[in-house]
Please model this.
Amino acid sequence: MSEIAAAATSALWAARLRALTPARVGLGRTGVSQQTGDLLEFQRAHAQARDAVHARLETAALVAAIGAISGGDVMRLHSMAADRRVYLQRPDLGRRLDDRSADELANLKTEPCDLSLIVADGLSALAVERHAAPLLQSLLPRLDGWGLAPICIVEQGRVAIGDEIGAALSAQLCVVLIGERPGLSAPDSLGAYVTWEPRQGRTDAERNCISNIRSEGLGYAQAAAQLMFYLRESRRRKLTGIALKEESHLIEEG
Model:
């Protein structure tokens, strides 16, 4: 095979691979270096990921959007991490509510409920702003008959903050929708974590996670269907985590 034919074949295979994945595969080269276009694209993706980590959640707009979807009260809470710098340096503070938020929940007169829904900015406020409301719009109609606590939006929050909130609201289950750590192909990926009988001290092994919820990944309807599977099965079996596995034939999409 001539050198020109080999190069053409290589380019064809690279194009086919790139059509199947957003990963950086089949990149061209100039001598021993990357091509300029690929290098600039990498730098752009890296900048987007950095921006997503440091971005501040537009909480007021999110409260309004979720309130319009749910038709109920939406609580605005804050972790012990005062700002983004502290949040990134002290993960432990993102797992606990600040005094004002803890007092607000303690003073809330609510009955024990089936489910607490919590939205936290996590490591990508962009993911939450883009995908939390559309996911809830798909999920909430499926929760007919479930006793729901007021939806909570937490600034500077991590996954485990749902344990404290769920316990304060006497919720049997909690779901934390949170911005996932940005990658170089997805700065706006949303995750959903389900925990049975939330309380402080729960570990990640006691949760179930659905990740990559976004337009280019797991769609809202499919993510809502998977969440309902975990919620129904966890309530039936009284557990979540490594003992509860996804069974695709039991997931009803739509």
